[in-house]
What we know:
mainly alpha; 16 helices
Amino acid sequence: MSRKMKDTDYAYAVARVRAKELTLLTEADVEQLVEADSYEAAMQKLSESGWGDLDGVTDYAQYLEAHFGESWEFLSEILDDVHVLDLLLVQNDMQNLKAALKSLITGEEDDSLYSDSTVYDTESIRNAVRSKTFGELPEFMQDAAQEAYEVLTTTANGQLSDTIIDKATLTHILELGKESKSPVLKKIAERKVATANIKTALRCASTKKSADFVERSLAPCSSLSVKDLKEASQEGPEAVLAALENTPYEKGAEEFRTSTSAFEKWCDDLLMDCVQEARYTPFSVDPIIAYYIARDAEVKTARIILSAKKNNLSQDAIRERVRTLYV
């Protein structure tokens, strides 16, 4: 069992992170990417910014995944117990669980579906699913994996299977947030779950899902009533947006009415808002959390810009989509 770390134990890791923060994209860097003449020119700018050599690169998504993976390796190197950051990465592990179950059912392997930035060993998850020994999975995965597998094998309902895993993910994130000593992680956990619930309620309202399905999809959190979201989802998307009035997420309704891309940007910016004060914290895990969120935001911004360049979107359209940066 790893020992509990005191705030002063993070001094070395924070110092390393402070140095790494100097390599984060700035607003000026992002503007240069937006103004790049082509997709190829934008990729070249990233390469020149230290994101990796372009030789043999055919897929920008894998290029960005590799860059983000390096950031996770760095954090794993400087932290005595990287599990303090589980809350930030566990969604990737659960995505890998989904991919492993899909592979088990279809009999086809697709390594591109798996994330490299994970808390738990991906191959161990794949092996447990292949052998159907779900008890060998991390404890929080076991029941969801078993239930999702039974749904897939008895009803072939992939959507319900994903919903079971997604709710288990959100529930675990909330539990990790409550257990954490970091106010930043607690706030991130709550906002992650609340915004995921909003997205789910809107999606269910648009596709006219039953109240039972919605209830199985939403994870209870303290800042938003899942009961209100469930009831509103039966009336339509506008009712869901109305249910956000007089909640901390009222701004999200405004952004959704503007566009779905504006809403997605708002969701991500909510997380960045959680960590802005961490730059002034000399010790504790918070600056390391902030660095992870910052890397995640810049990778999402790069992905948005590169996708937009490939699809010949205007510079103004791209600017509307880029995320708030940490630096």
